[in-house]
Amino acid sequence: MRQSMGRVGSCYDNAAAESWLAVLKSEIGTSVRATRAEARADVFRFIEVEYNRSRLRQHPEFGYITPLETRARLQHDFTPAA
Fold it and tell me: Whole-model pTM?
């Protein structure tokens, strides 16, 4: 982790990262895990199972689909034709 780079409007502003970390913190909580492996497993489960598979991208350009569906469409579009 790095400390914030500074002023509002700076190209190094980390507002997006802070917003995502706030979502992570609210979803998995702030309780202390018994081991580092347990904490890593909780973060992995949240990102890969809940966040990427169920969260809708709330923008018409993305078609209101999940990040997993976006990735699948992109891979399909870039697959070479036989």
Answer: 0.56
Do 22 and 14 form a contact (C-beta atoms < 8 A)? no
CA distance 20 to 46: 12
Dig out the tokens for 18 from the structure: 């802070």
What contacts 56, CB < 8 A, 6 or more positions away?
64, 65, 66
User: Which residue pairs from 27-31 have beta carbons closer than 8 angstroms and sit at least 24 positions apart in sequence?
Assistant: 27/51
User: Is pLDDT above 60 for 82?
Assistant: no
Which DSSP category does 80 fall into?
P
